Structure formats: structure tokens, C-alpha cells
Prior knowledge:
By secondary structure, the chain is α+β, with helices and mostly antiparallel strands. Helices cover 34% and strands 23% of the residues. The chain is built from 40 helices and 58 strands. A hairpin with a 2-residue loop joins strand 42 and strand 43 (846-850). Helix 27 (944-953) packs antiparallel against helix 28, helix 33 (1069-1085) crosses helix 35 and helix 34 (1096-1118) runs antiparallel to helix 35. It starts with 8 loop residues before the first helix and ends with a strand. Residues 583-592, 610-615, 642-651, 810-870 and 888-943 have low confidence and may be disordered. The structure holds one RNA strand.
Amino acid sequence: xxxxxxxxxxxxxxxxxxxxxxxxxxxxxxxxxxxxxxxxxxxxxxxxxxxxxxxxxxxxxxxxxxxxxxxxxxxxxxxxxxxxxxxxxxxxxxxxxxxxxxxxxxxxxxxxxxxxxxxxxxxxxxxxxxxxxxxxxxxxxxxxxxxxxxxxxxxxxxxxxxxxxxxxxxxxxxxxxxxxxxxxxxxxxxxxxxxxxxxxxxxxxxxxxxxxxxxxxxxxxxxxxxxxxxxxxxxxxxxxxxxxxxxxxxxxxxxxxxxxxxxxxxxxxxxxxxxxxxxxxxxxxxxxxxxxxxxxxxxxxxxxxxxxxxxxxxxxxxxxxxxxxxxxxxxxxxxxxxxxxxxxxxxxxxxxxxxxxxxxxxxxxxxxxxxxxxxxxxxxxxxxxxxxxxxxxxxxxxxxxxxxxxxxxxxxxxxxxxxxxxxxxxxxxxxxxxxxxxxxxxxxxxxxxxxxxxxxxxxxxxxxxxxxxxxxxxxxxxxxxxxxxxxxxxxxxxxxxxxxxxxxxxxxxxxxxxxxxxxxxxxxxxxxxxxxxxxxxxxxxxxxxxxxxxxxxxxxxxxxxxxxxxxxxxxxxxxxxxxxxxxxxxxxxxxxxxxxxxxxxxxxxxxxxxxxxxxxxxxxxxxxxxxxxxxxxxxxxxxxxxxxxxxxxxxxxxxxxxxxxxxxxxxxxxxxxxxxxxxxxxxxxxxxxxxxxxxxxxxxxxxxxxxxxxxxxxxxxxxxxxxxxxxxxxxxxxxxxxxxxxxxxxxxxxxxxxxxxxxxxxxxxxxxxxxxxxxxxxxxxxxxxxxxxxxxxxxxxxxxxxxxxxxxxxxxxxxxxxxxxxxxxxxxxxxxxxxxxxxxxxxxxxxxxxxxxxxxxxxxxxxxxxxxxxxxxxxxxxxxxxxxxxxxxxxxxxxxxxxxxxxxxxxxxxxxxxxxxxxxxxxxxxxxxxxxxxxxxxxxxxxxxxxxxxxxxxxxxxxxxxxxxxxxxxxxxxxxxxxxxxxxxxxxxxxxxxxxxxxxxxxxxxxxxxxxxxxxxxxxxxxxxxxxxxxxxxxxxxxxxxxxxxxxxxxxxxxxxxxxxxxxxxxxxxxxxxxxxxxxxxxxxxxxxxxxxxxxxxxxxxxxxxxxxxxxxxxxxxxxxxxxxxxxxxxxxxxxxxxxxxxxxxxxxxxxxxxxxxxxxxxxxxxxxxxxxxxxxxxxxxxxxxxxxxxxxxxxxxxxxxxxxxxxxxxxxxxxxxxxxxxxxxxxxxxxxxxxxxxxxxxxxxxxxxx
RNA sequence: GUCGGAGUGGUGGAAUGGUAGACACGACGGACUUAAAAUCCGUUGCCCGUUUCGGGCGUGAGGGUUCAAGUCCCUCCUCCGAUACCA
Length: 1251
């Protein structure tokens, strides 16, 4: 008989359905279960896709494998029935979406059965059916009750041509997908779910699930947790004092705050209107704000350049250094994130830099690059490294050391030298070069951590790069000493040297050298060096802080101090001058200023000149005089002037009194605040502390995640169960009125409002139930709401009175508590239990036992039970408090004497112990379940099932019953064990499902808070042409066609064989045919089956092959590595095909192993061989270890790592035996003449001989 | 730009740091056939030496660690997916 799938596939399909072999009944806490979950499809008119088949077959194989391994298994199926396509179809044809959807469902069921997916159809759900969406609405009401569903104005995508609201997916490049009209934003009042309350848990709990790392990462990105700081900037008028209120900004880079040169607020920020009276250009500002608000998303995206307007007349004060900063409004700052205001640090942020460059604002670097990692006991050194450029010939000068290493001329700073002085000195000392034209700083200093191998110490080096431009290479003679040291000056092209500075300790030189070359090129001196990858001008990374200090007077920028003896100036005049020339709008950039300070007999005028080119005039004695010339006008003035901004030495000598000297010293005094030289991280946390102490800011955690907009102005969705009174007030629909049915008397044509709104019947029902003038909400819910809980409904899909059976005692947390840590939640609950006079309660997967409700009441001894997984922790704690304990079997029992209770409470308060608890609690609560004393009561927690077993031993029936009651079917079946879902659902569906699960958990409905323990994505199946399957390309493969040509088994196995399950792969009909040929071989093997084999050696060989197959297939299924399983099947069947006969019991093992992959052919052959129905209810074979080990093995013999031959040796052979055999091999022996250096022998693997 | 994932024969893809290319498709040669299809047998990474056999090269590129690297580390390139003024 030939292999013809159509001969028997229908027969078995019908029998399986009739016998319900895939259905599971109720389970209890002793059941081993497996819940195989496939993401339920949208029942589209196009029918089942090969991608669905791929996922379902994978789910099915794993489910069948676990079933055969004795697990009670379900694989339910359902329909994500609400959605746009059915509604669009209705708009076009007038066919009601319900009819169309159910039609498609019937088609899907037919197709799924054809593929042989073992679905438990008794558990089918459809989100569009009233018995399902009744509970979707019920969930809405529960969320509403807890304050987690609310209504607010929000923009929607509006197509002005179609007069309709569009979903985000319907907007393509800012245009309507149907008519290409530009989409507008329109404000409408809409419903939201407060998922943001759960942001932290949604982020943190990702640690606990077994999901693809990439998907977890995408969820994290979506939630967008970012830790930063809010900082308050006081606001001042231009020439007036502090204005009320402040601008609060959010930053993740507090360490850069000394580089802040302006503030930016979003157009929507209220501070604009708040300071409207002092903003001089308010009308210009308002115009900008209006224009920004009118921009569509598309326009904002298209706009490349940043725009903004300064708020003239107001300044913000940097709390760290009192800099007066200009404030801008610009639409690159979003009002919806953070505080809607930022501190701009153009030196260390790309966007701020772009803005600053455009508006010519100062850029002030405060973070220096840091190379290497901090090391212990570092020696700090401060110095310069020189890039020498010879103008004459365009060559660069380096120092070549004795050992051949070519380095930059470098040296440390001595005494009070500045960098220029050091550079000159080192140049002379090390090279003798003297004929320099100019010396330039190469940007900011750089820091490097490295090990100095010569001095054998760790170093932390601060290095200023300097460029020395030389007129010529003329040298003075160096002292003899220097020659002896072995330096040699060499002139090179820098290119290859730059590449060699790649290691620790020289990497910062690479940076300096590159900066040097760039500067010479920018100065037009070097025209021949060709280097492309110069370091970024803008450094956005973390590093070491520089220039981050506040001094009363900034020595670095003081140009000169004028001392006027016996000044003739009135105090009021002085104040006026102080105000007028108030210094330091900024200490950098174009703002300049003058400080006026008075001692008993002198006036000090401290002049800052920051950009030397600008002239500074001041008003003095009614004269507007040039700063430089003040002393010419004031006879008693003496000027204390400095040669350059880094030297303290005065140009002229003047005699100062003691108090004047003190004042001068004060001007040059050390910083009050100085974060320089600290790492970004250290500085950030120290700055946060400082802000907190001074009440100027605080640490803040922000999330990108926004609340979930669930309103849809559509017909084909679950109606939102809200009713409005005639005044428009919101009321929840009464639970007994659920389901709130979708009305039938509607026109599907889009109007911009939900089609339901015009329904007469809908209105009538509202009025009859709630009163005249009352009306229902006409929006329906986002279909993601429907699909966020379907996996829970499967279990009890026919339960009419409850969403699913709920535990008898429902501890629940209120909204305000829902985002607390579990510790806090439990603590609250304990209080609640106490009020309700319950001794025991179950919360989550742990039981809480209250041992003492009233702290002052005398109690007897208390029994503690600690589960085995937390014994070590518990012992540690108990030892600390001096408590007696004994180990009994696996668990630990503790009797706590009454007088030790106080110790426990004290132990909670003690330093060390508190730390212990908190660490254990936060990190590992679900695993550790440590002993937990609560504030006024003592409670302990333990896993539910261990607790039940514990009380069974103690025969406490009442408690056992109570605890067992928590074992609802939902709690027993979920979380699901394997969830297979497409990559398109990496964010929203999975996130929303997790949100709902956490909400249910908080309400006590369920005892788990993550729904999908293990989740995997099936890879995309591409068309035969390598493109994504699409009607447009005509490359769609229809699974039913494939079943008709090749049979379901071939389709299933081929899809598994195509490639790694989780990767994208193209369809190939010919390869599919190869799988058919394989199944045919299996089919034909049945004619060679023999119960008893005459040739025992052959029997043994076959047995070994089959047991290896068992091992491979079992582990492959567990790892979802189906393609390699199929390959192994093929290999084994090809091998069996070599023999005349196949042993019957071994062939039956093959059938069992193959059954999950190819259920039809295996059932047929199983039956032909006379076995009892059904193979799918038989048990999985076990691999016998002794058959898996080979006696001999072929190992490779390598010479110097290259394979030169193979020898067959016993698996247990010793090195000398193997070596002896290897030496006999001709091809190996010829390499051994030169003598053997080393032998590496890995038993059963390889022999490598080094010669 | 940022974050993920991936680069291996003509193709889909195998390979706990231990003989790269399992298994399959295709191609080539042969058998059967009047012929074709189907089926079966053999060959098949590239290059060199006539062959058994031996040698060289080879997992996106370049470095490194190791007795030994597709696999581990560093730098870079390409493709796919996600996201984007998120401070």
C-alpha cells in the first residue's frame, strides 16, 4: 500500500475530535500540568496563514510531548474577534461584522483541525462574543472602581476628508491610509487605563520571566525608566531681584550642571504665562508658542533645524554657582516628558549643542574624557603632553625611547606653573627645541587610568594636550644627562603613531595627537596628513568633571583688580553700581561684569574679562570710562593687573593694608564648592545630596510609558460600560446589567463618532434602565483590552457567574497601594487581616500567617515553619537573634519562646538585621520567602503547597480547607508554560497582558503576577521569493493547499524543518517534497517490521540508534530546536533503511517519537501494527543511558592544531595508548620527526600533538 | 543616531572551545524506461598535485586569547527588526 495521507487523515481527525482526546478536566494541586498557549489569531477572511501553522505546530508538539510524559495538558484556542477589517468589510458590503467574523472562525477551526493541532475545543473563546466581552466590561468596571480607568481630553488622529478618527496604525507617514489626506490632531474626551501606576513593576519583573532577551529589552525601552534629578532654578528679572516661583527641570546628567549655559522650556510650559509681565518680548514668544502648537506631527518630524525664542527680561539662576542664565522656549523640548523644561548643556548634549550653535550661545565643557577603569591605590599625576609640529616641513616630533617606543613629549607640572609654562620647560628640557612660534591648548584635559609598568604603580593621570608650532627644528644642546637617559627626537608622519596608541596608558595620547593634528589642519598649517576619524568635538559620555566649582571670585577669569584708596562714593551709589554691573551672567562667554567691594578705606573693583576682544566700559563718577583706564580718572586708584589670566603675579606693585590683603586673598580664594576631578557618577550622587539638603531638587525616576488610551470611535469592539446622566456626569454601568450589548440598529458608515451613538435601541435601553435623558458611552474599547486576558478565560470559558473562579478570601489593595513594593503591600494586608480577624490568608503564591494580632496581649510559644529553600537565610537570621531551631526532614521548625518576641521586633529595628531583611526581601522574595516580622504583628509566609503539606502533617483540617480553597483552576493552570507569539507583539499586547495580570493579582483574583513564564517568538516565514508573504507579491502559501497536496504531516514537519524556529526563513516547495519523501520512507518501513530479529547484532545496532534518537528528540523539543530533531529523524530512518528488517518494538519507539510531529501517519501505522488507540495517549519512551555510550570512537589527530588523520580508539583509552596508535599512522608519523613538544589529549574527542 | 538580532557551500541550514558544512534542496554522473516523471545508486565548499591519497585556502573584514576559535575578547563593515528631539 502506498503512502497516501488523504486515505486516513480525515478518519483520525474526526475520531480525535469525537473522542476529545485533547480535552482536560479539572485539576488539583497534585496534578502535573502543562499549559501550551498560542497567541489567538484574528479570524481574518483570508484564513489561516502558514505563520500561524508554524507557531501552533510548535505549541502542539511541545504539548503532545508533555502529554506523553504524563502531564495533564491543554492547548486552548480562541479568536481575537473584534477589529477593523470586519468593520471595514461591513462598511463596504453591509454584512454584519458578527456574521462575517463567525464565518471566518468556522473556516479557521476547519483549517486548524486539518493541520492536526491538538486543540481542546471545549475551551474556545471569542472576544467578540457577548459571554466574553461581558467580562471585558466587568474588568473595566473593576479598574474604574480602583481609580485606574479615567477620562480626559486627548488628541486623536482625525482625517478631515473621511470625517473619521484613525487608529495609529491607519496613519501612514502622517497621512490617512485610505485617502492620503494629511491627518490632523483633534482633541477629544477619551478613556484611559492608568498603566503608569504599574511602570516600575512592569520594568522590574521582566527579570523573572523566561523571554527572549531582545523582547525584554524592547519592553524596557518602551517603559523607558530613567533615573535622574529634578532641579529648581530660581528666576530673576534682568535688573530686578528674585521673582516668585522657579523653573523646575529634569536631567539625567546632573554632573554636567556647571556646563549649563541656558534653560529651555517647552512651548506648553506654564512658566511662560506666569512671567508674562516681565517677559519683554511676550508677544513674540506667544507667537512662537502658537506656531509650535499648530504643527502637526508630520511637520515636527520634517523640521530639521531647531527653533526657539529667548524669554527676554528673565534669567534663571543656577543653584550651584549662581550663574544668571538666559531662558528660551523651543519645541525640541517636550512638555509631556519630565517637567517640560531642561537645563541646556551644549558641551555635552547633542541637541543643546545644535541649538547653541544656531543661536550663538556659549559652549562650556565640564566633563573630561576618561580612559581606562579606576584601579586601586592610584597615584595622581598632573601634566602636559605635547604635539610638536614643524612648520618648515610639516612633520611631527616625537620622543623615541631606548626600547623603541615612540611617545609624546610629556612632563609633570611643577610648583605654580601653568600649562603653557610647563610646555615650554618640557620642550626645552626634553628636546632642546626653542624656535617655537606659538603654543595652543588642545581642548580640555583628559584623564587616564593605567598601570605604569616601569614604576610598577597604578596611575591616575590628568593630562593637558598642547600643540607647539615650531618655526624650525633648531636645537640647543641638551645636557649630558638627557642623552644618557636615551631619548631621541624623531620626526614622523603621525598616522601610524596614532594607530599604535591603542593600549591602556597610551589611549589618551591617541586622543591628544588627533586633536593636535586637527588643530594644525584647522590653522591651515598641515595640508598633507590624511586622517578621517577625528574625535568628536562634542563629548556626551560620562567622564571626569572639570571646571565644576564655585568660587566667590573666579580667579581664572579675573583680569584685574583696581584698588581705589579713600574712595569718594556714597553707599547708595555703590549699590546702584553693583546692581548695574552685576557680574557673572555667566563666567564664560560674552557676558562680562565688574564686582564692587568695599573695605574700610578702599574700594575694590574686580574686573572680569572673558573674551578678551570685547572692550569693557563702566560708569564711574558719572563718566563712562573704559575699564582699562579707570585709574587714570581716579587719582587714588591703583591697578592690580595681571599679565594673563592664569598668573597671580601683579604687573605693578602696590602697598595694601592688612584688610585689603585679606580681601585680595578672598578674591583669589579656593572654591567653596568644587566637584572637579570627581567621576560623573560620584559627582552626580554628591550633587543630589547637596540639592536635597538645600531643598533645591531631588532624585527622580521618570518613565516614557504613558497611560493606555482605550477609547475607540468604532462599532466593532466591546462597548465601554459607562452611562451618563442628563448633566453628563459619569456613572459606571451596574454589574448586573452586563453585558452591555452592541446594538444591531447601526449604520457602519464612518461619521467621526462611533456608529453606536446614532443607535435608537442603545438609547432606549439606557433610558429604560437608568432614566430619561441618560445615555451610554458610545466609544468602544481598544481590541488590546480584549486580548489582554483571554488566556485566563480559557480555563473556565463557560463560567457565567464569575470571570473565572475567584479565591474565597479576596485581599485586595487600593489604587494608591498598587505601585508599592510587595513588602509594603503585604504589610498593609496584614493590617487588614487583623481588622477582619483572620488568622491566615493567601496572597499571591505565598501564604501569610498572622501569629499575633494584638501586640500587647500575652501569647504562648509560637511555631514557625520555614520552607527548605529559605533555610539558610532563616538560620542566619535566627542565629543572629539567638533563637533555637531544629531541622526536621527538609524543612526547618522553629519554636520561638514568648520572651524572644521582643527580640524579633528589636531585630527588625537593629542596623545589621534590617539590612538583611531588606536585601532578601527586595531581591528574592518569591524564591526566598523569608521570615518576616511585621510592625505590630508577627507573620510568616511560605509557599502555598508547602504550607498545605505542613498542615496535613499536623491534621489541621480547617486550615487545610481554607488553603485549598485558594487553589482555583486559574491558579492551578496558570501561568502558562509556553507562550508562542509573533514578533509583532513584542511590546503592546505583552505589556498590557502583564498589566492586567498584575492588577488581578493585586485584587487577589489570582496568585501569580506574570502570565507568561516562558515565551518565544516564531520566526517569520517568507515567500519562495524571499519577500514577506503578501497578496501584492502573489507569494502567499495557503496551508490548506499544502495539506491537500502533501498531507498535514508533511506540512507540519516541513515547517519545523525549515530552519531555527525563532528565525525568518523562506518557503521552498522542493524542500517540502523532501520531507514528504522522508515520511514515505517511514511508511514503507512498516513492511520490514519483524517482531523477533535473527541477527542480534543488527538488533543491537538499531536499538542504539533509536535510543540516541530518544535522547536527541526529547532535548530538542524542550529547547524548541525542531529542525535538528527532524534532521535526526531523517538520519535514523535512512539508517534503518539499510537493514532488511526492522525490529518491531524499535519501530514503535520511532512512531512514538514522531507522533508529536506527524500525528496522522503515526496513528495510522500504530494502528496497522495492531496497537491500541491512541498513540497520542501512549507514554514517551525513555532513553537507556547504557546504550548511548559508544565503545569506540573515531578521534581526530592534530599536529599543531591541524587535523592530519583520524584513529579509532576505545572511549576509555589512555593517552599513551592513543599516542602509540597515532605514531603508527603514516601520515602522522612523518610530522613527529622533529620531536614532540607537548601532547593534549581530550578523552573521546581529540589528540593534539605540538611539534 | 540609539537599542536589539543576524552574517557559514549554488540554496535552507548543522556544529557542549576539540575532524566546519550534519540533514535537506539543487546540480552533475549513472541505473531503470521507447521517452519523461517518479524511484534508486554515486559525486558535490574552493584551489593544486594524474589516482588511492596528499597538500593549500576557507564560517562578513581586521586584530587578540588558546595546544586548538564559526564558537571567547577588541575594532570595523553589511543586512534585518524596533525606536526616535524622552533631556
